[in-house]
Design a protein that fits this description.
By secondary structure, the protein is an alpha/beta fold. The chain is built from five helices and five strands. A five-stranded parallel sheet has the order 2-1-3-4-5, with helices on both faces. Strand 3, helix 3 and strand 4 form a beta-alpha-beta unit. Helix 2 runs parallel beside helix 3. The chain is globular, with a radius of gyration of 13 Å. It starts with 5 loop residues before the first strand and ends with a helix.
């Protein structure tokens, strides 16, 4: 069987996680999930992750803090930031913090698909 890239989705909304599960399966990717920054960092230390998709708003720590920590410990790891709160983080700020892409919810699947393929270097 061909190699499947692993995507870690960090979000505390079950509906978002379910939607990503379907989307990533259709893109031939395997998915890990985390509902908090702490859980996400544990996943990163345990598994080989090819891409992270993180929400800006998480329960304990913000996705911004997680983004900075993940990029410090795993500088080559591509990160896509998603948010329903554009007042909390702008695209410019997300990219300054090391994110490759920034999307507002509701997500446009065609743009997300293109970002996923760019980050994972897929055709």
């Amino acid at each position: 069987m061909a190699y499947q890239p692993t995507v870690l989705v960090v979000d505390d909304d079950e509906n978002i996680l379910a939607a990503f599960s379907d989307f990533l399966r259709s893109e031939h990717c395997s998915m890990l999930t985390a509902e908090s920054a702490e859980e996400a960092m544990k996943q990163l230390s345990k598994y080989r992750v090819d891409l992270v998709v993180t929400d800006v708003r998480l329960k304990q720590r913000s996705g911004v803090t997680f983004l900075l920590q993940a990029k410090t410990e795993y500088p080559q790891l591509p990160v896509i930031v998603i948010t329903g709160y554009p007042d909390i983080m702008t695209e410019a700020a997300a990219k300054q913090y090391g994110a490759e892409f920034f999307f507002l919810k509701p997500l446009e699947l065609s743009k997300l698909r293109q970002a996923l393929r760019t980050c994972l270097r897929l055709p």
